[in-house]
C-alpha cells in the first residue's frame, strides 16, 4: 500500500553540472504537511537539491540527474511534465522577485496562464492568496500599485502569495528571509508555520535558529552528501554525526 503521508521520496540521487558532481547518492523521505529544513555550509548542494525537486535545474545547460525523485509515488523526471510539476511544486526565491506590474497582476499571473479569465474568480484568488500570505491588510487598498513599490518584506510575502495563487501542494523556499530585517523575518516564519496546515514546505536556510524554530525535520548537507537527516529536535539536541554537531554549534561553515 502506498504511504499517503509521504510527499517526496528521493532514491539514490546524483546530480552533475557537466563533470562536477554536486549531489551524491541522496536518500530522503519528505512527509506531507511537514516543514523540512536544509542546512549546511555554502556550496554543499542545498539549492541544487531544492531545484532538482521541481526540475528547475533542467533550465541549466549541461546538468544531469541520476536516481529517482517520486512525488506522490510518481517519477518526476519521467511521469510528470515539468510545467505540471512546477504548478504542483511552487518556489519562493532568496531575493523577493515580484514582476514589475501591479500587486493584482502579480497574483493573477499564474491563474491567468492556467486559463482563468473571469474577473470575479480572479478577485477571489487574489484576496485569498494575499490573506494566506498575511499581506492582505497591507495591500488591499493598493492592489493596482506596482509590487516593486512595497518594502522588501512585503514584496517577499507578495511573492509567497503569487506562489500560493496556483494552489501548489509543495512550497520550496530558498533562503526566503535572508534579505529581510528581523521583524519581516519573524512574520515570514509565522506565515510558514501557518501554511504547514495546507502545504508541504521545504526551506533552505543559513539561519540555525530559524531551522530550529520552524522545521519538523532537518537535513544537514556537506560537500554534496546528506550527512544526517532526522527530527529537528534530534539534529539540534542530540546529533549522531560529529560534523553535524560542529556545524550547528558554529565550529565551521
Ligand atoms: N549553474 C552551475 N554551474 C556549475 N556549478 C554549479 C552551478 N550551480 C551550483 N554549482 C556548484 O554546485 C555546488 C553546490 O551549489 P549549491 O548552490 O547547490 O550550494 P548551496 O549549498 O545551496 O550553497 P549556498 O548556501 O551558498 O547557496 C557548488 O560547488 C557550486 O559551485
TrEMBL record:
As for subcellular location, the record says:
Cell inner membrane
- Tell me, in one coarse class, where this protein mainly resides: membrane
Gene3D superfamilies, alphabetically?
Answer: P-loop containing nucleotide triphosphate hydrolases
Residue limits of the ABC transporter domain? Answer: 8-248
Q: Which PROSITE patterns match?
A: ABC_TRANSPORTER_1, ABC_TRANSPORTER_2
Keyword set includes ATP-binding: yes
The record's section on InterPro entries has: AAA+_ATPase, ABC_transporter-like_ATP-bd, ABC_transporter-like_CS, P-loop_NTPase, PstB-like
Query: What is the recorded membrane topology of this protein?
Result: Peripheral membrane protein
Q: One GO MF term, please?
A: ATP hydrolysis activity
Give GO BP annotations, semicolon-separated: phosphate ion transmembrane transport
Give the residues annotated as coiled coil: none
Keywords, ordered alphabetically: ATP-binding, Cell membrane, Membrane, Nucleotide-binding, Phosphate transport, Translocase, Transport
According to the UniProt record, one GO cellular component term is:
plasma membrane
Function noted in UniProt:
Part of the ABC transporter complex PstSACB involved in phosphate import. Responsible for energy coupling to the transport system.
Q: What is this protein called?
A: Phosphate ABC transporter (ATP-binding protein)
Q: Which organism is it from?
A: Petrocella atlantisensis
Q: What is the lineage of its organism?
A: Bacteria, Bacillati, Bacillota, Clostridia, Lachnospirales
Question: Which gene underlies this protein?
Answer: pstBB
